[in-house]
Specification:
This protein has 354 residues and is α/β, with parallel strands linked by helices. It contains 10 helices and 13 strands. It has a 7-stranded parallel beta sheet, sandwiched between helices. The protein has a two-stranded parallel sheet with strand order 5-9. Helix 1 (19-29) packs parallel to helix 2. The chain is globular, with a radius of gyration of 23 Å. It starts with 9 loop residues before the first strand and ends with a helix.
Length: 354
């Protein structure tokens, strides 16, 4: 381990049965951490536990829970600590969505997306903080998206939830900073990622749903979460050049981006192949209760395994951390050097007087 990496920790991951959450679980497992993996789908959870154990987890347990249920989340947190010890890191990633124009989304569907993709984060973070704050240590990582800043057509419910997470997270972070606690929360804004969600979200599109290219592998996202958990003082991290470009464009020319997405947002989220009847639908029931979908979706052939922007960001972060350590050590080194110089001058003076 590097000096910035902690010893074996207890890590909780929601949405851990597939996609980014699954890749995050494996990334922490590779460092020998203890893992509590939360999701609704039994088959997906069992697969995630096997992968985590194979990757080197000290211990991994599966907890079936719907994060839209605050009592279930609280029970999951309690079990995680009973079986694995005090929670050091909590990663929120569970979500669901509906691909459809806003006028075709029923109120009950919109409420369900909001309850899982927004309130699920709120409930889970509350459960984590009730344990972390009394101990004055711990990190909560919120898995976000470029959509937290820039809503896109056909994903109004998901866009609303991610925007809500962003505003709530900023308020919470300010409160934690004001309290003086050492508990930290940070957010990671993701690009389009090759996950199974595009084969199991509820969709009313004529063609199969796809992420807006460029698409990244879930391991890229997992590396970002791991880094954020190790460096939580930063308020948020952007992953992928496409995320950076989108958020900067939205800050500078949001109206132009509205018109661009109006022209391209419908076609870019469909892959040209007709959607088949009977496809999985995980809005109210888990799609992976009996089938393990894994971390990857069907876009392996075009997904990027690395992000130059991410590598550069982490490298600059390491340089900045080194500079901070050097600055902190400078007074001590200067004092030691001055003491040695005084000793040298005193010795020379003594030799001259002999």
């Amino acid at each position: 381990m590097t000096p910035d990496e902690p010893e074996c920790r207890t890590v909780v991951v929601t949405g851990a049965s597939g996609g980014i959450g699954r890749a995050v679980a494996v990334a922490f497992a590779a460092r020998g951490d203890r893992l509590a993996l939360i999701a609704r789908g039994r088959a997906g959870l069992d697969g995630a536990v096997r992968e985590a154990e194979d990757a080197g987890a000290a211990k991994a347990i599966a907890i079936e829970a719907d994060t839209a249920d605050p009592e279930a989340v609280e029970a999951a947190a309690r079990r995680a600590e009973e079986e694995l010890g005090p929670v050091d890191v909590w990663v929120n990633d569970a979500f669901t969505s509906v691909f459809a124009p806003f006028t075709e989304i029923a109120p009950v569907e919109f409420r369900r997306v909001t309850e899982v993709a927004y309130l699920g984060y709120v409930y889970a973070t509350g459960a984590a903080l009730r344990r972390m704050l009394p101990r004055d240590r711990g990190v909560v990582v919120q898995v976000g998206s470029a959509i937290a800043y820039r809503g896109i057509p056909l994903q109004s419910a998901y866009s609303g939830a991610k925007h809500a997470i962003q505003g709530w997270h900023e308020a919470l972070r300010c409160e934690l900073l004001a309290s003086g606690t050492r508990v930290r929360t940070t957010m990671v804004q993701m690009p389009a990622v090759n996950t199974p969600q595009f084969d199991w979200v509820r969709s009313r599109l004529p063609e199969r749903a796809q992420p807006v290219p460029p698409i990244y592998q879930p391991e890229v996202a997992a590396r970002a979460v791991l880094y954020a958990a190790d460096h939580p003082d930063r308020r948020e991290y952007w992953v992928g050049g496409s995320t950076v470009a989108t958020l900067l464009a939205n800050a500078v020319v949001p109206g132009l981006l509205d018109r661009y997405l109006a022209r391209t947002g419908f076609s870019s989220q469909q892959d040209g192949h007709p959607r088949q009847a009977g496809e999985p639908d995980n809005l109210f029931q888990p799609a992976d209760a009996r089938r393990d979908f894994g971390a990857h979706g069907r876009f392996d052939g075009q997904a990027r395994a690395r992000s130059v922007q991410q590598q550069t960001s982490h490298a600059l972060g390491a340089l900045a951390a080194g500079a901070r350590r050097a600055a902190a050590a400078a007074p001590r080194l200067a004092a030691g050097f001055a003491a040695r110089m005084r000793g040298t001058r005193a010795l020379r003076a003594q030799n001259r007087s002999v």
